[in-house]
Amino acid sequence: MSSNTASSEDQYFVPAPSALPFALTVGLTLFVIGLIQVMEGGATMPPTLFLGIAISTVFIFWWFWKIIAESEGGLYGPKVDMTYRWAMGWFIFSEVMFFAAFFGALYYARALALPWLSGEGNNLSTNLFLWEGFEAAWPSNGPAELGGRFATIPAWDIPFVNTLILLTSGVTLTVAHHALKENHRLKCILAMWATVALGGIFLFFQVEEYLHAYQDLNLTLESGIYGATFFMLTGFHGVHVTLGTLMLLVITLRLMKGHFTADRHFGFEGVAWYWHFVDVVWLGLFVFVYVV
Asked: Hey, what domains does the chain have and what are their CATH numbers?
């Protein structure tokens, strides 16, 4: 760790080596293994899933605590602030590419794979040797009707409500940001709590949607290409909403403890960037997964 404790203009804080990244990687790895076990039809709630969640939660908040202590201790100067801005920008760019790959998979399945399997534009009639009589209709559960017949979730039901919720959360977050810049801390805190609540409500409705899909519509991960892409896109977005809601909660609690000032609050801004990104991704999901 740097021997200097002041955040002067010409100094750059370098933290001491830490095992937190490795520990968090272990927790996330166990979580993914447990999730795969659930998806593969194994144990309903395997121990690895709970262990991964527990380890990840502990070390995420431990890491938060260390960073907050460094920030409030005056160790972060303008150079560190700029580093965080660049890092958050590149992180969000990587998330854009992450979802672009999933939207690309959706496009490939709908616009390329289905027409090819049905024989559209295929002079060699390859489909006759693969799936004779297959029609390129979307939503599709595949040529062999994998998982059986299913129904889709109406776009103007829960998905539309969730769209309004996320758009409203973007407004309340913007109100909170402007309030912070104008030194209206109480207004900022109230708007942040509203944003956290809206994030929680969104997740509640998404769980309700998934239960309805599995129990009433026979729409599952095994429902062919449509089920796979539907849960892949909406599920990963739900994970991002969960992480974003947790980050918003941490920022709100920090505001209540007097952290951040009108001109120094990148912790707040970074989370706001992430949340607005989550909002934009959902708009794409709503249009291309539910409506089109």
From this structure: 14-75 (1.10.287.70), 79-99+151-291 (1.20.120.80)
